[in-house]
Design a protein that fits this description.
Layout: H1 3-14, H2 21-27, H3 36-42, H4 45-53, E1 71-75, E2 81-84, E3 88-89, E4 97-98, E5 106-111, E6 118-123, E7 129-134, E8 144-147, E9 152-156
Antiparallel strand pairs: 1-2, 1-9, 3-4, 4-8, 5-6, 6-7, 7-8
Length: 157
């Protein structure tokens, strides 16, 4: 094998796509399921890209980032309750951040994109991508759920 072939092989292993949400849906059974066309009819193109294809909204663009009213944050895909406002805090990252989810509301998996391993979180009811969880949050949990605001609906209580 020459150097050019070795380089091509090395580059091919780097750019192999990671598991998409579609593959995840085929492996996991979520209680709330829609076909791809039903999701596209239910969500805007940008919401679909974030929630079903794991895109990310730009930092500091979600109005929910600066929302500190009392209430509950729900999944925009299926309306499941995900986060209570009392666990929301300003992480300075530009995305709505929470230190704790409602028990059983989210699922997680390893995300190996961008040459790092992160913990991706999704709605446990419909599988919609929410964001990522990091270990640099406030006590007592030490977690930062960094969530795309476009994946959420806020309801005052």
């Amino acid at each position: 094998m020459n150097r050019r072939s070795l380089l091509k092989l090395g580059l091919a292993t780097i750019v192999i796509p990671t598991q998409s949400i579609v593959a995840k849906e085929e492996l996991a059974e979520f209680p709330f399921r829609l076909s791809k066309s039903e999701w596209k009819a239910r969500l805007t193109p940008f919401e679909f890209a974030v929630m079903r294809e794991e895109a990310t909204e730009r930092a500091f663009t979600s109005p929910l980032n600066s929302n500190y009213e009392t209430g509950t944050y729900h999944c925009k895909g299926c309306d499941q309750k995900l986060y209570m406002s009392r666990y929301k805090y300003d992480s300075g990252t530009g995305w709505p951040s929470f230190s704790k989810e409602i028990d059983g509301a989210i699922g997680t998996r390893k995300d190996r994109k961008f040459f790092m391993i992160r913990t991706e979180c999704h709605c446990s009811n419909c599988g919609s991508h929410l964001g990522h969880i990091f270990d640099d949050g406030p006590q007592p949990t030490g977690k930062r759920h960094c969530i795309n605001g476009v994946s959420l609906i806020f309801r005052k209580t």
